[in-house]
Amino acid sequence: MKRATWLLVVGLLLIGLAVPGCSQSSGNLTVATDATWPPFEFVNTDTKAIEGFDIDVMNAIAKETGLDIEFVNVAWDPLLTGMAQGTYDMAISSITITEDRKKDMLFSDPYFAAGQIVVVPVGETAITGPGNLAGMVGAQIGTTGAFEIEKIPAATLKTYDDIGFAFQDLMNGQTAAVVCDNPVALGYVKENPTKLKTVGDVFTDEFYGIAVAKRNEGLLDDLNKAIAKLEANGTFDSIADKWLK
C-alpha cells in the first residue's frame, strides 16, 4: 500500500473514532441513564437489570424506530457531562428540559410532565411547602430540585449522588426535608407511609425529554416521530399504568 493511501486510511479511521455520539462497543446506540431514580430508572436487586418507566419508554421507542440500543448506567453529573461531550448517543433519565441544558445537547419533544415537591417526616408541622422551607434540605446533585432549594434563603442545600440516600438521611433525622420530582417523592412516601409525607403542592412545571448528542438531528427527528405515535396509540399510558399507579 502506498504511503499516501495508508495515511488517508489512518486519517479516516481517526475521524470516525472522534465523531461525537458514536458508540464504539457493539455498533449499538448508547443510552445513558442514572439508575438511582425509581420508579423511572433503577437496578432490580434480584436480576441486576436496569428497569423502570424510562427504560420501558426507551425500549418502546427503539422498537418503533428499529434502533439497536444499549443502556449504560452512569452517575448524574458524568451523564450530563458525557452528553455534552458526545460520549453517549442519547440519555433518558428523568431529564428535565432546560435552556441551560439545551446549550450542551439536543432534546426530544417532552414525553412526561413532572414538577418539584417537598417531602418531610410525618411529624413535621413547621414546614408546609416551599414557602417556609428551612434548615438542611436534601436533593440529588445537579437536579432541578437542587436548583430550587438554592433559591430559598432559609434553606441549606445538601446534595447526594443517589436520591435514595437523601431520603435515608431524612428518615434518620439528618435533614429537615427533601425536594425532588413528584412521582419519585410519592414512590418513597408510598414505601414509607409511617415516616414520610409530602407537603404543599407541586411548585414547578417541568417536562422530561430524551437527550441526544448534538449534530444528531436525524436521530432526534426519529425519536420525535416515535414519541408522537406511542402517545397516540396508548403505549405510554400502558407504561405509566405499569410503573406509576
Describe the protein in words.
This protein is α/β, with parallel strands linked by helices and 245 residues long. The chain has 2 domains: 130 residues, D-Maltodextrin-Binding Protein, domain 2 (3-Layer(aba) Sandwich), CATH 3.40.190; 89 residues, Periplasmic binding protein-like II (D-Maltodextrin-Binding Protein, domain 2, 3-Layer(aba) Sandwich), CATH 3.40.190.10. It contains 9 helices and 15 strands. Strands 5-1-6-15-7 form a 5-stranded mixed β-sheet. Helix 2 packs antiparallel against helix 9. The radius of gyration is 20 Å and the shape is globular.
Question: In brief, what are we looking at here?
Answer:
This protein has 245 residues and is of the alpha/beta class. It is built from 9 helices and 15 strands. The chain folds into 2 domains: 130 residues, Periplasmic binding protein-like II (D-Maltodextrin-Binding Protein, domain 2), CATH 3.40.190; 89 residues, 3-Layer(aba) Sandwich (D-Maltodextrin-Binding Protein, domain 2).
